[in-house]
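Fold it.
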Amino acid sequence: MSIYNDYVQEVVERKGQGLNPKPIDGAELLSEVIAQIKDLNNENRADSLNLFIYNTLSGTTSAAGVKAIFLKEIILGKEVVAEITPTFAFELLSHMKGGPSIEVLLDLALGDDAAIAKQAAEVLKTQVFLYEADTTRLKNAYTNGNVIAKEILESYAQAEFFTKLPELPEEIKVVTFIAGEGDISTDLLSPGNQAHSRSDRELHGQCMITPEAQQQIKALQAQHPDASVMLIAEKGTMGVGSSRMSGVNNVALWTGKQASPYIPFVNIAPIVGGTNGISPIFLTTVDVTGGIGIDLQNWKKKVDANGEVIRNENNEPILEQVYSVATGTVLTINTITEKLYHGDQELIDISKSLTPQKREFIKAGGSYAIVFGKKIQTFAAGVLGIEIPKVFAPSKEISIENQGLTAVEKIFNKNAVGTTPGKVLHAGSDVRVKVNIVGSQDTTGLMTAQELEAMAAKVISPTVDGAYQSGCHTASVWDKKAQANIPKLMKFMNDFGLITARDPKGEYHAMTDVIHKVLNDITIDEWAIIIGGDSHTRMSKGVAFGADSGTVALALATGEASMPIPESVKVTFKGSMKQHMDFRDVVHATQSQMLQQFGGENVFQGRIIEVHIGTLLADQAFTFTDWTAEMKAKASICISQDETLIQSLEIAKSRIQIMIDKGMENKNQVLQGLIDKANKRIEEIKTGEKPALTPDANAKYYAEVVIDLDIIDEPMIADPDVNNVDVSKRYTHDAIRELSYYGGDKKVDLGFVGSCMVHKDDLKIVSQMLKNVEKQLGVVKFNAPLVVAAPTYNIIDELKAEGDWEYLQKYSGFEFSDILPKSTARTEYENIMYLERPGCNLCMGNQEKAAKGDTVMATSTRLFQGRVVEDRDGKKGESLLASTPVVVLSAILGRIPNMQEYKAAVEGINLTKFSPISTK
């Protein structure tokens, strides 16, 4: 049976699901399609033509290579296809976005046929996805006197690929659709349990919000054909939580416009809004697709005659509506006045949504085209020996005399590319920066691979110090979906130049370590900039930004990222921790005390949290920086002391060496290079040549928060508050409650110790608590299941060496096996302890899940609706977040403990200790 017939069978199956044929990305299938096109009598010829023209993926896919060569043969007259004229062949090449198409266009432009060369040159002038091999050919041809090469370079220098694009329309009509009330997580737009389908864009699009919502959107489009549908988070922030390109892809698929008529299911230009704006990561992803994100500000805090905020019985600000954005409201975005209108009524200024840089993204159909366009313009001007013509909006450079630098300002100044020499930049400046470390995770990695193919990238940028492809989000269950997707992903990324969790050749053990833990180890310089395909890319060394799969691809391909320098909020501590408190309680208390100090305003949102927490090692400090994603911060920076940083780097070195010993090193000796850099950094600190990063004493902050440790006397629990009468207050991470709030009788159906929020000491706490309980009661009996998933294999190895793992084995009723991994997700739990494979497990929600309607107590970061646990008829699922000792005791008791029970259970256990940095 031919591969085409196999494909046709799949087409029939997809049609039964209401789906179109899957886009073609393989050379073998497209070669058969082309053979059928050439055979004028072939019964499949018409279908094959349609597939070739409209259903073949572009970029560097193997199918794109076959397509480009066939189009070249048509242009040269070696093949004749009545339906594809040479002119049409050039048009198709112009939509293929680099890679083989550029190679073909250069062959034609630099060839001997003058007429063809002229046509090819005109197409090349519109292209920006050129790499070193392509630009070298152009440069050499120009040097050898080729007139066409000179003409192309002159066009590039003038950035005609951008200037000749249509300008933004003066008015953009939108019709509103309220996607939800309160914060809207990307889980609503692209559910974690559908992660396996993200690279199949049409299929994945079926999971956005609900089928009913999709029909409402279609109805609005039919009623308002001249308007774009704007998805809105009413009384909330749009796109909080995970960093999902798939979420924006889905929004664009339903509400945007097709990027090219010849590339299926790649849509751009979504328009989204939120009462409290757009989550920073999500907004970056909107920029990637040339969309618009608007801070609607359509509700505001009610004030009295004295200007004081009026509060309700829960001491929360009362909101009043400024203007309505009810579903079906027609609004107008005016790109000239930069205002939002309802009819003739001016509503708000939206200039922040239409900055010069964002206008360029919108005009070009996305930020990639601008990034690559600037690079190609710089290259061309250099070859021609001319100054770069000022075409693009100049980067905003803010420099304030006599004002010191925050930690993030220092890092950005150190890593800045292309800024005014000698100019010191402060927050608000637009900066291109060198990226040091890049992380790709496995449920977004397939999309990152697609993005790399689309931008015609073949190898990692040599300026990136290290990059890692994880396998943690699909670690729990080695099912058919994982078996189909993950090996393919690992091979692509390994070939591209990343260190990969799985070896495509099977020569080393599959590592399912949580990506954030690995990135935290391979970041060996606190001056580093890290980009990772997950919102919890929040390292305790350097400054790390969670990003969509496209931004990750851009960082891998170019070694750069572009963004404004964010404002910072300084967080310091006073007082001392109580003996019975865990550091997780300090983390939750930070969020709670911040909200109290600023009258409910989240000063962390969209900013850098500069946390002065230098007495904790990187593993433990990561618990704080990791949680800053839930605080809605853009990123965080841990200010560490010299000795602590040295200890953290020594630990990182040992773990990188383990990766080398396991056989994970690549041909570029990336891992050894990281160890060498760590040794150099340690020496700089020891000699005083370059001490640990600190901000300047006269740095300026948006706000300063001081956390009082003395008043933290009870474990602090983040509650999804699922029954709050105000829907917008549910699932926000802001309801932080003390243990006694629950009265010692709230039933718990399952406990989960795992995710990126735990470290080795957490697993030691589990074993020590079990010993305590056995000593007190004579036996350990679980009244609810306890799922325990170590973040990394290293931690398990260390626990085995230190004697803790055997205690965990003693009390467990299930232990994972790498020889026989689970092939199906667990749907029922017994009242035992499960020792699960290292990885994300329940936190991700795409494989393992609690039973519907359960109340889960977890060390996780996610309390969003449907993530860890889904609702059932008559009972909402709840995911409450707490410290390891609270989770363990809750599982043993089957309920949330009271303070007396809690103190007895942790007696004698050395919980994570922390004391503020001494200022004496």
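The first strand starts at residue 171 and ends at 181.
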